[in-house]
User: Fold these one by one.
Assistant:
Number 1:
Amino acid sequence: GPLAVVLAPVLGRAVRRSDTAAVPPGRSGGNPRMNRAVLATIAAAFVVFGTLALTSDPIDTVGYPEESVTWLEGQGLLAEPHRLAHQEFVGNYLTLRFGDQARVFVDDRFDMYPLALSQDYRTLLDGGPATIEILERREIDVVLWWRQLPLAQILRSAGWQEVFGEKDYVVLQR
């Protein structure tokens, strides 16, 4: 919408015939050749962007654990009786992918969660000493986490098994 408003004067000048158009006093009709070049450039941009919009995936999921979530879904680990812990942006991805059927531990709406859950999440994120106790208290038996954060190493050393992994993520199960 706003692009059309901005481009209207340029397009108007580009398609106007300079030999019959009335030019207001003090204004030049411009260079018809330049006006056509601008119009051609704008048209080419519309073709390129339109083609990209129609041929590419409308949502960029690079950086999200797509393979891990697909694996978890295939193994039935996203459904009851399992409880999954994950990082907040993974919660956003789960909501995007599964809609209101997603069972999310935490996402970026921190103000909507009880303070105790936010504090527990922060401890898990930092790899604090209460990590194992938090997972037990919340009855979490599956964790999808970024493999470089301390939680992955803490869980391995506590006997959790790495059941799936991809480049940046690891799935650990009790």
Note: The first helix runs from residue 2 to 15.
Number 2:
Amino acid sequence: MSGKNWKRVQPTSITHALRLCKDYAKEIHNRSVERIADLIGVSADLLYKWLANGRMPVSLIPAFELACGIHYASRWLVTSEGKLVVDIPTGRTVKATDVQQLQALLNEAVGGILSFADGKAEAGEVLASINHAMTGLAWHHGNVEKHLQPEFEFGGAD
């Protein structure tokens, strides 16, 4: 799995999402299933069982994702209900690379739609690229909106 573009991966089921979290933890943080289980306070055997059948208790998903360092299970739960997940914007100034990345996402989505119309692309791949493009646009919308609303900086006294 070396070199996987984790930002572009889309889980197809809750079981797949849990396994992707585990794979990410292994590749990026070098965490074994045993270490993840220890971090969330369960046995490795129980975690292996949940990874096999996708029946992890909902109350443990946040701890599991924190231990893994990525949120595939939460994202899958939300997107499986037809909702769009957008990271909370920071209100920071947009850089040229941000806009270039957005443009690439939009181009990929439009290209995917055209390929799908010609029967050359799979629906799942096209939906994933459209989702990425909409997420990018929504993030920029929120970022511009938040930039207009200044926040107080709470710091220590100088």
Note: The helical segments are 14-29, 33-40, 44-53, 61-68, 72-79, 96-117, 123-147.
Number 3:
Amino acid sequence: MDLGKGQLDLMLLAVLEQSPAHGYAIIAALRARSDGGFDLPEGTVYPALHRLESRGWIVSTTTAVNGRRRRVYGLTSKGERALRDGRRDWERTVGQIRAVLAVAP
């Protein structure tokens, strides 16, 4: 299934809801939580993270780990609201799709 920006943004926010994480950990969490279904390349995830940061939905800080600098992303209160609203909209959309796909008696 192709991912639109909205679905990817929502999944990234959901991953960051649990705790702040660096890019590779976010990619690994998407892969693990989808049982390998969303094994996304860095070239897809990092632009989305930058987009979310520009919206104020996430914030990043730079830390040093074993002498390497890593950017760690965390959810903001604005991002929490976007996630809550996105989940509500997603559930409504899924329900509407299920209704259309249901086999009529």
Note: The longest helix spans residues 77-101.
Number 4:
Amino acid sequence: MRAIDTPLPGVLIVESPVFDDARGSFVEVFHAEKFAGMGLPVHFAQDNHSRSSHGVLRGLHYQLEQPQGKLVRPITGIIFDVAIDLRRASPYFGRWTGMELVAGDGRQVWIPPGFAHGFLVLSEFADVSYKCTTTYHAASDRGIRWNDPALGIVWPLSSGRAPILSPKDATAPMLADAQLFP
């Protein structure tokens, strides 16, 4: 198991070897001692699981109070996962990184507190698991518009088709109008 840096400091790809044989495969997705050794959290307060069809975009979400760190991996399917630094004091404020995550390849992404998170489903469907460091806090739930030109996220949309969004995500504020971290 190893941690791989991304262009945003703190956002890490956690890669574990996948062991395949005639029966199928095995991968270790969490190991407290190994996570601690990589500087990652070893306590998670909530586990979430979503199932979405092709073209669904979930995000870009964050919580102002009780900000969540998230460990994200697809259980089935393929997603394009995005993290955005929303800490005003950070030299990386407003920057994003994105990566394709494929179920079963041993890769997951760690997104620390202070970042917004979202993903686009690239396969027919995807089941996504994300472990969170704090519980959901509805009163401080916030979002940023997925297509804010100030962010310039390059989503891999099929043939220019618009993503499938929840009403909340479709009307999320632009970065300039959002409540953010100090």
Note: The radius of gyration is 16 Å.
